[in-house]
Amino acid sequence: STPGYLVGSIEGRVAVQHVEDNMSAKNFTFKCHREENEIYSVNSLCFHPTQGTFVTTGSDGTYNFWDKENKQRLKAMNKTCAPIPCASFNKDGT
Questions:
Q1: Using only C-alpha atoms, what is the Rg of the chain?
Q2: What phi and psi values does residue 61 have, to the nearest 5 degrees?
């Protein structure tokens, strides 16, 4: 996995950015935390410490696990009744 970072927005988007200039072709942006015509902010982003996957949480009350290498959602969890402000993995990812 290459070094990089994630940027979330109030427009329900996430940008995956690589640090190395020679990897810029692998940068991409995707839409998430949307429900029909409603768009919700991405509140938190967190990389898994060992797997290279990440989680997003949103004002829509959902959290989703993503695979950045394959550019796909791995799992969408059931919606809660309130926005989810933050997410975190413990240090070993279990």
A1: 13
A2: 85, 20
Residue-by-residue pLDDT tens, the chain, 94 positions: 678 899 999 999 999 999 999 999 999 999 999 999 999 999 999 999 988 899 999 999 999 999 988 999 999 999 999 999 999 999 888 7
What tokens appear for 49 in the block? 């410490």
| DSSP single-letter state for residue 91 | T
Q: Is the pTM value of this prediction over 0.85?
A: yes
Residue located via tokens 């990089």 = 4
Q: Six-digit token pair at 14?
A: 């996430």
What residues have CB less than 8 Å from 21, skipping those under 6 apart?
Answer: none
